[in-house]
Design the sequence.
């Protein structure tokens, strides 16, 4: 086992949020805003009838595409402003590959799938916690083994 493959796949699986709030592309933007507010989240995964991710809608999408344009949110559907075909990753994807994908595509959230169906979501914030914890653990291990001369 090399250092990169330590056991981060199990760590990654533990940080996947399995309670993903989803919405249909046919729902109104008003419904999306209501869900985001009540669930205290900044994005919703748009799924089809088979629970496959087909889009993502963020609080920024609501502000830029609806509020700033002074459009009535009850008259616009999620499909009208969502990002189509979101980047997704399989739940068995390596942690370092997840980080690379987030960087390459400049996204903050990744829907997690298994067999193409939504099984969870992971965010940059989730990964920061894991990486920071590992760095702290490394620093503590190094300081406890270091000797002062």
Sequence:
């Amino acid at each position: 086992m090399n250092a990169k493959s330590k056991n981060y796949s199990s760590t990654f699986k533990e940080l996947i949020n399995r309670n993903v709030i989803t919405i249909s592309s046919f729902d109104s933007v008003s419904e999306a805003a209501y869900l985001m507010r009540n669930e205290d989240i900044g994005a919703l995964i748009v799924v089809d009838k088979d629970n496959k991710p087909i889009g993502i809608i963020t609080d920024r999408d609501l502000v830029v595409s609806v509020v700033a344009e002074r459009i009535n949110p009850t008259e616009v559907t999620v499909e009208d402003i969502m990002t189509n075909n979101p980047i997704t990753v399989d739940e068995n994807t390596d942690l370092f590959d997840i980080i690379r994908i987030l960087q390459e595509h400049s996204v903050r959230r990744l829907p997690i799938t298994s067999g193409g169906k939504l099984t969870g979501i992971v965010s940059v914030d989730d990964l920061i916690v894991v990486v920071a914890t590992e760095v702290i653990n490394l620093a503590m291990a190094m300081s406890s083994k270091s000797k002062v001369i």
